[in-house]
Amino acid sequence: xxxxxxxxxxxxxxxxxxxxxxxxxxRISFVKGGSPAARGVTDSRLAEGxxxxxxxxxxxxxxxxxxxxxxxxxxxxxxxxxxxxxERAKESGAALLDCPFSLKTGTYSRVKLFxxxxxxxxxxxxxxxxxxxxxxxxxxxxxxxxxxASYVPxxxxxxxxxxxxxxxxxxxxxxxxxxxxxxxxxxxxxxxxYGLADSGGNPSLGVSSGDLPVDFAGIPGSSGSSExxxxxxxxKPNGSTSGEKFVRIFYDGIGAPxxxxxHGLCDTNGPSDAYAFSPxxxxxxxxxxxxxxxxxxxxxxSWAIPDETRGNVSVYTLGKGYSIGDNVTVSCAxxxxxxxxxxxxxxxxxxxxxxxxxxxxLYLQAK
Length: 367
Known about the structure:
Elements: H1 12-18, E1 23-32, E2 49-53, E3 57-69, E4 74-78, E5 83-87, E6 95-104, E7 106-116, E8 118-122, E9 124-125, E10 130-132, E11 140-141, E12 152-155, E13 162-175, E14 183-188, E15 193-197, E16 203-205, E17 215-220, E18 225-230, E19 239-240, E20 246-251, E21 257-263, E22 273-275, H2 279-284, E23 291-295, E24 300-306, E25 313-319, E26 327-335, E27 358-366
Parallel strand pairs: 1-14
Antiparallel strand pairs: 1-6, 2-15, 2-19, 3-4, 3-5, 3-7, 3-8, 7-13, 8-12, 9-10, 10-11, 14-17, 15-16, 18-20, 18-27, 20-21, 21-22, 23-24, 24-25, 25-26, 26-27
């Protein structure tokens, strides 16, 4: 169904003067993020505990989006037939889906993307002995079902039929009345689905704590990529979350990092995300997370995240990996404030010096 162009009015006292904005034809282009190595790990049985899984395939239905412009005005758009099939085996950068719609002209710095709260996932992991099985009461099995692994529902708790997540656009998306560049969304589903194993090692598909089963970053006008680093080695597409720490990094089309997500590193009690912009740009986008993300000439990736509990800032540096299995060091220091970049808005101008830093070894598991 083609939707009619719509208008967002200014306050009533000015509405008769400003009228309605025009709309432009636009599209979101979903692309595949980081791809892992082939499986090669054999585990005889799952230990009791919490697990995160990487679906072999998943069907994610995107239902609507909320676009927020530089002035803070938001527009909500419904998406028709925007159903993406994610395949983990596809190469990084592979095109997954285009979803066209109409959007009022403007310059947008934030997008909140909503998905149907139920995502269909399929896991068929012979090396780990883990299979999705709709005939099982737990939706998972340690042995391959007679009909093979099949799709099962993975539900994100929500008061409605959909659940959303907002991201910032490092480069704002300009929509004009006419031909427009697409907004590319790099998607990543490495270790994004959660489950459990009981004392007997029997697996069950868990209910999400609220996180979407797909992570993404937006880039106007060009595709991008993602990487996934973890303290676990060797690569495990499905593994225990007990003590595991990870970093997920999204890059733009020229290889500059635009968004980093970290879990468990540095014992920071603040947000998990940091973007490639300054604190002032973060404030302008009403974003309260991290900033200064950049990759310098020596390929060191650095960022800063405020610690909401301690009232200080955690500053990170990570040596970039190049091949699957590469081990890298991520260092973190707690500071009263983040060192300003040598120049510009990010640490692309040089990694900050860290005093009293702690270090972890991570392994590049998908790129």
